[in-house]
């Protein structure tokens, strides 16, 4: 059966974006004052075979492309969707279709984006159908927390950047109980450490 997993860049203290500048629109500010979380996408000499324009270090490219190649569909939360300019009507992944999970209608969604308003379980089910034998990726802190709470996540991947941001948007929201993780891989690379965990049941 296909797996459901998440993989996001995160600071050592658990933030996926920094502080939004004073007076700026939250949904137009991207990573806030923390663009360094994604410097490792472009600081190397090895082009990604999945994402055009990415040039990573060799260990990062090997790990990143292996993970990205697994994805057959990607589920995105509404906040991430808005922060990312609605992905230009497409998907955050160059080949995998996007499923947007939200609480209400999204009139601006394109016909290339599947919108699910009935909860994370239905969104992941829709993504599994789209993905076929491939895996389902998750993107967005609130979405990932809801999926973990519902027992729907098989793996957690943290691209941990060696910085303490001290503020911003956290990766994980409050969970109703502990979630046990088992380390599958730890790959040090320039500017980032890739931590790959299996989720206990």
From TrEMBL:
GO BP of this protein: riboflavin biosynthetic process
Gene Ontology molecular function terms on file: 5-amino-6-(5-phosphoribosylamino)uracil reductase activity
Query: Which residue ranges does the record assign to the Bacterial bifunctional deaminase-reductase C-terminal domain?
Result: 4-185
Which domain of life, per UniProt?
A: Bacteria
Write down the PANTHER family for this protein, in alphabetical order: BIFUNCTIONAL DEAMINASE-REDUCTASE DOMAIN PROTEIN, DIHYDROFOLATE REDUCTASE FAMILY PROTEIN (AFU_ORTHOLOGUE AFUA_8G06820)
Name of the featured protein: Riboflavin biosynthesis protein
Origin species, per record, is Amycolatopsis azurea DSM 43854
């Amino acid at each position: 059966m296909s797996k459901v997993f998440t993989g996001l860049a995160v600071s050592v203290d658990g933030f996926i974006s920094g502080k939004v500048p004073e007076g700026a629109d939250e949904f137009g500010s991207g990573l806030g004052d923390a663009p360094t979380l994604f410097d490792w996408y472009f600081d190397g000499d090895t082009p990604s075979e999945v994402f055009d324009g990415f040039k990573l270090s060799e260990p990062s490219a090997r790990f990143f492309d292996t993970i990205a190649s697994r994805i057959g569909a990607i589920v995105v939360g509404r906040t991430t969707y808005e922060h990312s300019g609605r992905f230009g009507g497409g998907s955050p992944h160059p080949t995998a279709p996007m499923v947007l999970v939200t609480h209400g209608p999204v009139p601006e969604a394109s016909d290339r984006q599947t919108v699910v308003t009935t909860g994370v379980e239905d969104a992941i089910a829709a993504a599994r159908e789209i993905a076929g034998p491939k895996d389902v990726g998750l993107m967005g802190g609130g979405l990932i927390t809801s999926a973990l709470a519902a027992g729907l996540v098989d793996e957690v991947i943290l691209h941990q950047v060696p910085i303490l941001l001290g503020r911003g948007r956290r990766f994980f929201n409050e969970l109703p109980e502990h979630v046990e993780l088992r380390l599958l891989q730890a790959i040090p690379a320039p500017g980032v450490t890739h931590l790959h965990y299996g989720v206990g049941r």
